[in-house]
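Target chain:
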Amino acid sequence: MAITRMTLDEIMSRPAEVDQAKIDATTEADLRRHMIEDGQDPDAPLDTLRFLNPRDVRRRLGMTQKQFADALHIPLGTLRNWEQARTAPDPAGRALMIILQREPEAALRALRQSA
């Protein structure tokens, strides 16, 4: 696929590809049906670990963003994007957050040894 360069004005002048009326017409019953079709249980309690915020893990460890990013061997910008919810950690990043939440000393020790 080719990459096309456009100015912001060109982008803003294009028609929206989202059918807002369809979104507004979606009911709770529709959402429930979609979840079931996707193999999810709409009545299951939320898995809080799935929504673990890297900021909370970092603060619990008493580390600055720079220290935490260095310890995890990730770019500082990536950590900032995760913490500000611009992007979400990939599955490996989420797994690492869970490990750091549950076993921080072992995880940090292993990360130090891998450097």
